[in-house]
Amino acid sequence: MIKKTNLIGLLLLISALAIGCGSSASTDNNKTNSGSESFSEKEEVEQAGIERESKEDNETSVGNDDNSELKHTEYEGSVNEDGDYIIELVDTTEENIIVPEQINGATVVEIGDHAFSGEKTVKSISLPDTVKWVDSYAFSECTALEGVDLGSGVEYMGDLVFSYCSSLTTLSIPEGTTTIGALFCFCPSLKEAYIPASVTEITGMVLNDTCPNGVIVTPSGSVAEQYAIEHELSYRNE
């Protein structure tokens, strides 16, 4: 009976110890899981911080890119039967344009209709001496354009080449030019336009009342002088 009682007591003790170990193991597991969860939350916070910094860096970079847009000038055109280049379209963000003598290995000889039209950032344009023809509306609506160096090779200039060039103040047509059209229209800032004696044909009204301050400057006895007198335009001899 004592042995049986002792045996029962021993079994109860073993059972109690087993339950205690299980509770301890469970507690340890819970502690481990809790630690893992805490570590995982820490990782998420740190990752979120990295991502936020990365996003801020990217936003700063984008802003800088917007403020530092690269200047560019692009030309489109065609090659004529003589193998020379005609500029037909210009896309630019620059203020001062120097047109090259050659594009894609072909000599630039002509500025086509509307080639620079509406390029509102352009303040000055310089043409190479190779250009012979400046077609109608070539520089129209270049509202910031203040001056143009036409080079020394221009022979022909079409109609309304400088129409709506509201900032243009002076223009000198080069010696050797023979034909010009109605060059100026809605050029309120224009003060002087030099027309050389080489111009023997004027196909349209060079100046009109949309250029109220404009004066033709030309040699005495020139076709331009006679034109100004006949059309009651302001002029003076050089």
Task: Describe the protein's topology.
Elements: H1 2-67, E1 73-79, E2 85-92, E3 96-98, E4 102-103, E5 106-111, E6 124-126, E7 133-134, E8 147-149, E9 156-157, E10 170-172, E11 179-180, E12 192-194, E13 201-202, E14 215-218, H2 223-230, E15 235-237
Describe this structure in words.
The chain is α/β, with parallel strands linked by helices. The protein folds into two domains: 1-69; 73-237, Leucine-rich repeat, LRR (right-handed beta-alpha superhelix) (Alpha-Beta Horseshoe), CATH 3.80.10. The protein is built from two helices and 15 strands. It has helices at residues 2-67, 223-230, and strands at residues 73-79, 85-92, 96-98, 102-103, 106-111, 124-126, 133-134, 147-149, 156-157, 170-172, 179-180, 192-194, 201-202, 215-218, 235-237. The strands form three sheets. Strands 1, 2, 4, 5, 7, 9, 11 and 13 form an eight-stranded mixed sheet that branches. Strands 10-12-14-15 form a four-stranded parallel sheet, with helices on one face. A hairpin with a 2-residue loop joins strand 4 and strand 5 (106-111). The radius of gyration is 41 Å and the shape is globular. The N and C termini lie far apart (145 Å). Residues 1-5, 16-42 and 48-68 have low confidence and may be disordered.
What is the terminal-to-terminal distance? 145 Å
Structural class: alpha/beta
What is the helix content? 25-40%
Q: Which fold name is given in CATH as the topology of the largest domain?
A: Leucine-rich repeat, LRR (right-handed beta-alpha superhelix)
